[in-house]
């Protein structure tokens, strides 16, 4: 409201009349700076011996506290002009540090003479005695006067005075020479020293050399640092503030000489050195080096309601109280009614809203003052209340002058009653219009009509009276500040010492905003991916941020940079500076994880019962972790940083909490609520919830708390603002990017006080992997990566005895769960501890299989009607290509022989069982007319046996087993209806399956005896055998996973919302061993199919078997045709893969055999389709004007010169693009050659490895993808090796 005293900045003090603020070094300097002269009142004139007087003259401190690197004087004068002890410093006295050569040199340099005390002067005495002995009198001529360092000799040579006394307006020399030749006024371009008697050039100000005797030219200087582009006076501006169209220097020098003058049709870049066409502004391509032509852009039609210059502002920028347009047009508003929020109070004018907490707080915040109307405005007990509500000191009552607006302080009994006996009052007696009355003084409360006055404990009754700590005393109180803070002159407020910064992300840039100077330094601008979350580590002076690729870091000096985690989906990151870890949220998996700052295998901290994680915050000095959820029930939770002692903190007062921050000073948790559009806070136990809703905060996002202020970003307004954390007052916009409404997301305050030094309990632990903090810092807790378990001692992680794991397939992802995780709990309403692996480019997955050693995941994608191949690793899955596609057909079953990598499969439109080689170049057919519509296949490669389903007639399905070459068939069971998920026991003597029609999980001996079943809940989907544990999935509304240990009773393991379409169990033992095909493919030229004690060699289509092992081209088909797989028909090549089956076995529609991609870095090279249908594809798909290539797993056209379009259907007007086409083709060929070379080398290496494994008669699996980390994350300050991932084409063998 009006009439408030001025708020003075740090380093200044208000005058008593409230008219102005003056610098501390102007207080008690002998010159009146305040109009009322209050800056020269109550000044201490002398300090005691052994004390130092602060420059402002109001404080004395011990001499030992001078130049001790801790400022006791508020003006820091005790730490100015200090010479620090350094090499060559032999003696210190006061602020002087003398060299060894000046000590005991016979000349006094220290004022106290300490440099000449305790010196050995015997030789000097002997010399004097010797001179006197010969009767020589001392010289009569006085030697020249030698003055101490820092003092000056008067012209008459009689005495020395300090430099600070020269030209100070007072004669100190007897001859008055110290006040001669003193400058009174300085010329333009000069600086006048503080003593007023000396002028120096402006260029000599803040040049680290003191020309003024009082050093005033070197005080309050901002030193140029990295990122300082321009200096004006004592300000040092960042490059981004120069020629930005806004004057920051008082002399306007930051906007002077800004380069070219652009024409009316041109736009001038912010740096002022370049002009571009106006049409190039806001075209999504940066022509200016500073990107100023693309900043502040909002396209018309994208919520644009007001345009000024190149800015296009959305509606919530209009009339919000902040000038966004330079011409102020966004705030030229006619007052109109506004709708106030849930936690706001409407002003009487209906045109303004204020937070409810501002109602009746003693300050008029509504323009019409209505927020203070009808308030209980009772005065404190030591004051008199007028009937017109004013509060007066009782000493002005009955003084003959009207002070109350209604005159109620005068008249009445003023003239008749007078205080005659003060002793009847505890403190004071005053005459009032109603008679004499006793009054208690400030700090006391009256009892019994003020006959007794008792102390008021301000610290309890008004805890906000002190910013930090309050100590009550009789009749008063005293505020104190925490370590690292200074108490302001108001006696209540605390201000942090040292520099503080705001760390913010604006799209892909990381910025450091100096909170003292408002200068902005660009910490990182070379990234192309937006920073989603950020935090910092003060100890390493490093900043960590998350983007869609992982978690990265950079040092503040910009000399170090790297990646801590690759391939993780980190939604929010938080640094544990005590335990030396980084925590992050995986919003997809619903997990909170942690990793060591120096690089380690990640561990899971919390994964159960969390929905839609949003924000994460840590309080390491207490070992606490906080997070927010926005699922069905929005809430804020708290737990130990080890995941223990979990509890819901706030639930009823939140709707969509998206940001979290901890105020360690007041031990409160703050959050932003995007739906309520407010900032909330509560104690660390969830009590005392307070909500602050301001009109200027339409979409609050991240936030940080420091000192008395709360800082937050608004993603829609593109601003970072701050306000008082309790009242919400003193609002200020610190960073404004209105043209980047969603770009400015993250912000946090950077200051050492926010990461205090705390003992790390983990230092005494000997954890084998990662140590995290327990609640209350009562110790450390060892954590293990997901594939390991902790030993009984709680220190060492080791492999579990049972390493069986499940892969549960969803339409677009696969989830890994260890079988041993059942021990952590059953009947869960969420996933157990798990790992989700998203598969890129898929549409509708239906079936899966895995080769553990090669980390190869095979999936059937019904949406793309193809068998896809992925490489699984710690960071996720990478696509390796397509093995084959089926046109107008659906795959019904598949299983991979993990020894030969042959794929066994069946389809809905083709009879028999099909086998496709690992290369994808050979496909053969077994049991052609004997098996129909197999819905499941299971293999035992070591034994050379397989089992499969066979629909012999409608409604009747047989379960059969045979050798893997199709020989020796036998029927195991004949009464199945809709069997799926066949599994053979490890002993190969029992067959298991699920019958989705009958709703049972059944098993029978391979001889057809000892049938058993478990009846399941309705909605049976799939089943797997995990060692001897039965696991199956049902779905009715939700998806449930069940298991049975004894193969009799069923137990619910967990229930999730996600759809699960397939499940399979894997383990090392299940893929260990060898068969007759292990060594050199069994000697077979193409396909090797094992059977007990031997193997059968077969050839693919277009080849005939010779000599049992060899294959020769089939000569039976004429040129231009190709045989079907069955070998009984010849079909023209152009009819292959045309969508219409011509072969009776439909093998002409098995397409894209083993097509893979080559990729180096971000550029994709399209590789020619190397299969029998390549030429036909070029004619059919590309109109004969191009060739088919594979790009990102899909077949597309690469057009000939002169043609364009998806199918090369559009002729171009010129041949300009011809060199481009050939250049691209040349590059592709080069990369293909590289890929083939690498592929051949890897193939030979793999073949040699398999030969060695075969010689040992074992095929040991190394499940590095799901059980061990493929690569250790690079720690900070380590060099990352740039790896090029090569994907190769054609008929090269797939290497993983």
Structural overview:
The longest helix has 38 residues, at 1218-1255. The chain is mainly β and 1296 residues long. The strands form 34 sheets. It has a five-stranded antiparallel sheet. A four-stranded antiparallel sheet has the order 31-30-29-52, with no helix packed on it. Strands 32-33-34-35 form a four-stranded antiparallel sheet, with no helix packed on it. It contains five helices and 94 strands. Helices cover 5% and strands 35% of the residues. LDL-receptor class B repeats lie at residues 623-666, 667-709. The chain crosses the membrane at residues 1220-1241. GO terms for molecular function: calcium ion binding.
Largest sheet: 5 strands, antiparallel
Our count of helices gives 5
Estimate what percentage of residues fall within beta strands.
25-35%
Report the span from N to C terminus.
72 Å
- The tally of strands reads 94
Unreliable stretches covering 5 or more consecutive residues: 121-140, 1153-1177, 1213-1296
Helix content: under 10%
User: Which class best fits the helix and strand makeup?
Assistant: mainly beta
Strand order of the biggest β-sheet:
60-61-62-63-87
Label this structure with key terms.
single chain; 1296 residues; mainly beta; five-stranded antiparallel sheet; four-stranded antiparallel sheet; 5 helices; 94 strands; 5% helix; disordered C terminus
């Amino acid at each position: 409201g009006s009439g408030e005293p001025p708020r003075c900045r740090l380093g200044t003090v208000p005058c008593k009349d409230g008219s102005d603020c003056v610098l501390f070094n102007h207080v008690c300097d002998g010159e009146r700076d305040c109009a009322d002269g209050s800056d020269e009142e109550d000044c201490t004139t002398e300090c005691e011996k052994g004390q130092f007087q602060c420059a402002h003259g109001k404080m004395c401190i011990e001499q030992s506290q001078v130049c001790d690197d801790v400022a006791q004087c508020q003006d820091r004068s005790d730490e100015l002009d200090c010479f620090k002890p350094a090499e060559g410093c032999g003696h210190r006295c006061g602020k002087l540090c003398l060299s060894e050569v000046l000590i005991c040199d016979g000349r006094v340099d220290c004022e106290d003479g300490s440099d000449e005390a305790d010196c050995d002067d015997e030789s000097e005495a002997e010399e004097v005695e010797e001179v006197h002995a010969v009767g020589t009198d001392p010289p009569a001529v006085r030697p020249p006067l030698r003055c101490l360092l820092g003092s000056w000799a008067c012209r008459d040579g009689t005495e020395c005075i300090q430099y600070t006394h020269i030209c100070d307006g007072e004669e100190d020399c007897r001859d008055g020479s110290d006040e001669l030749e003193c400058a009174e006024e300085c010329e333009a371009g000069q600086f006048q020293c503080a003593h007023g008697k000396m002028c120096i050039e402006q260029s000599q100000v803040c040049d680290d050399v003191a020309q003024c005797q009082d050093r005033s030219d070197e005080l309050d200087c901002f030193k140029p640092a990295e990122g300082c582009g321009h200096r004006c006076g004592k300000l040092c501006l960042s490059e981004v503030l120069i020629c930005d169209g806004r004057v920051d220097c008082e002399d306007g020098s930051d906007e002077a000489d800004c380069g070219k003058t652009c024409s009316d049709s041109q736009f001038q870049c912010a740096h002022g050195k370049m002009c571009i066409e106006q049409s190039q502004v806001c075209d999504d391509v940066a022509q200016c080096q500073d990107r100023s032509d693309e900043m502040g852009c909002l396209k018309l039609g994208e919520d644009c309601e007001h345009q000024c210059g190149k800015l296009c502002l959305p509606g919530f920028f209009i009339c919000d109280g902040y000038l966004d347009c330079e011409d102020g047009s966004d705030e030229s508003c006619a007052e109109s009614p506004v709708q106030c929020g849930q936690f706001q109070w409407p002003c009487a004018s209906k045109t303004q809203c204020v937070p409810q907490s501002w109602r009746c707080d003693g300050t008029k915040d509504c323009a019409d003052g209505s927020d203070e109307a009808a308030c209980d405005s009772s005065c404190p007990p030591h004051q008199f209340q007028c009937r017109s509500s004013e509060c007066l000191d009782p000493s002005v009552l009955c003084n003959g002058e009207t002070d109350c607006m209604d005159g109620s302080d005068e008249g009445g009994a003023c003239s008749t009653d007078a205080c005659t006996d003060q002793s009847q009052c505890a403190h004071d007696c005053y005459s009032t219009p109603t008679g004499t009355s006793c009054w208690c003084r400030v700090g006391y409360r009256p009892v019994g009509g003020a006959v007794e006055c008792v102390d008021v404990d301000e610290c309890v009754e008004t805890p906000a009276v002190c910013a930090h700590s309050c100590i009550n005393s009789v009749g008063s109180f005293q505020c104190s500040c925490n370590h690292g803070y200074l108490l302001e002159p108001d006696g209540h407020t605390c201000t942090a010492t040292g520099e503080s910064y705001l760390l913010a992300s604006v799209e892909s840039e990381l910025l450091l905003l100096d909170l003292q100077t408002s200068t902005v330094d660009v910490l990182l601008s070379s990234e192309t991916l937006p920073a989603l979350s950020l935090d910092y580590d003060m100890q390493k002076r490093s900043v960590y941020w998350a983007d869609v690729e992982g978690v990265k870091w950079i040092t503040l000096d910009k000399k170090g940079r790297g990646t801590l985690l690759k391939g993780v989906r980190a939604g929010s990151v938080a640094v544990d500076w005590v335990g030396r870890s980084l925590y992050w949220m995986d919003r997809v998996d619903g997990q909170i994880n942690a990793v060591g700052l120096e690089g380690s295998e990640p561990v899971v901290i919390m994964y159960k019962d969390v929905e839609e994680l949003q924000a994460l915050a840590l309080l390491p000095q207490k070992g606490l972790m906080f997070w927010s959820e926005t699922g069905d029930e929005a809430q804020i939770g708290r737990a130990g940083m080890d995941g223990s002692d979990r509890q819901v903190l706030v639930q009823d007062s939140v709707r969509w909490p998206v940001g979290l921050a901890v105020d360690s000073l007041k031990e409160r948790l703050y959050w932003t609520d995007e739906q309520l559009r407010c900032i909330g806070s509560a104690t660390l136990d969830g009590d005392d919830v307070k909500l602050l809703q301001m009109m200027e905060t339409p979409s609050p996002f991240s936030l940080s708390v420091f000192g008395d202020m709360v800082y937050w970003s608004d993603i829609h307004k593109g601003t970072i603002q701050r306000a008082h954390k309790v009242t919400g007052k003193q609002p200020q916009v610190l960073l404004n990017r209105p043209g980047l409404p969603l770009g400015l997301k993250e912000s946090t305050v950077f200051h050492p006080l926010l990461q205090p030094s705390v003992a790390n309990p983990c230092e005494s632990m000997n954890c084998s992997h990662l140590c995290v903090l327990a609640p209350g810092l009562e110790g450390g807790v060892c954590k293990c990566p997901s594939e390991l378990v902790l030993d009984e001692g709680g220190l060492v992680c080791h492999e579990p005895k049972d390493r069986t794991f499940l892969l549960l397939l969803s339409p677009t992802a696969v989830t890994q769960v260890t079988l041993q995780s059942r021990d952590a709990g059953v009947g869960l309403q969420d996933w157990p501890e798990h790992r989700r692996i998203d598969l890129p480019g898929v549409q509708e997955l239906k079936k899966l299989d895995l080769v553990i050693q090669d980390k190869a995941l095979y999936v059937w994608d019904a949406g793309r009607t193809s068998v896809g191949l992925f490489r699984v690793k710690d960071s996720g899955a990478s696509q390796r290509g397509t093995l084959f596609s089926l046109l107008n057909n659906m795959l019904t079953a598949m299983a991979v022989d993990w020894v030969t990598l042959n794929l066994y499969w069946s389809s809905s439109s083709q009879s028999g069982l099909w086998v496709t080689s690992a290369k994808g170049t050979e496909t053969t057919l077994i049991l052609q007319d004997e098996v129909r519509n197999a819905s499941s296949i299971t293999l035992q490669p070591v034994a050379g046996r397989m089992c499969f389903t066979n629909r012999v007639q409608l409604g009747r399905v047989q379960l059969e087993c045979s050798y893997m070459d199709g020989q020796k068939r036998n029927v195991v069971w004949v009464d199945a209806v809709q069997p799926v998920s066949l599994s053979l026991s490890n002993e190969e003597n029992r067959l298991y399956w699920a019958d989705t029609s009958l709703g049972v999980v059944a098993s029978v001996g391979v001889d057809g005896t000892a049938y058993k079943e478990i009846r399941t809940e309705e909605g049976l989907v799939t089943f797997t055998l995990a060692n001897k544990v039965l696991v199956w999935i049902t779905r009715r509304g939700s998806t449930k996973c069940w298991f049975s240990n004894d193969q009799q009773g069923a137990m619910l393991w967990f229930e999730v919302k996600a759809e699960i379409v397939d499940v399979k169990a894997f383990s090392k033992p299940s893929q260990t061993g060898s068969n007759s095909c292990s060594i050199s493919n069994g000697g077979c030229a193409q396909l090797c199919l094992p059977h007990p004690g031997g193997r059968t060699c077969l050839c693919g289509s277009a080849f005939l078997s010779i000599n049992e092992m060899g294959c020769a081209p089939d000569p039976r088909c004429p040129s231009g045709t190709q045989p079907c797989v069955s070998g009984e028909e010849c079909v023209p090549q152009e009819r292959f893969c045309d969508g219409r089956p011509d072969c009776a076995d439909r093998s002409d529609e098995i397409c894209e055999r083993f097509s893979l991609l080559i990729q180096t870095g971000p550029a994709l090279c399209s590789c020619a389709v190397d299969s029998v249908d390549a030429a036909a594809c070029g004619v059919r798909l590309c109109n004969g004007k191009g060739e088919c290539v594979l790009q990102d797993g899909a077949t597309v056209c690469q057009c000939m010169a002169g043609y364009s379009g998806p199918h090369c259907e559009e002729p171009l007007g010129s041949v300009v693009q011809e060199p481009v086409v050939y250049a691209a083709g040349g590059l592709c060929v080069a990369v293909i050659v590289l890929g083939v070379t690498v592929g051949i080398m890897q193939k030979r290496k793999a073949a040699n490895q398999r030969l060695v494994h075969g010689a040992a008669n074992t095929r040991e699996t190394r499940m590095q993808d799901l059980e061990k980390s493929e690569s250790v994350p690079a720690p900070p300050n380590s060099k990352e090796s740039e790896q090029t991932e090569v994907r190769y084409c054609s008929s090269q063998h797939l290497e993983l």
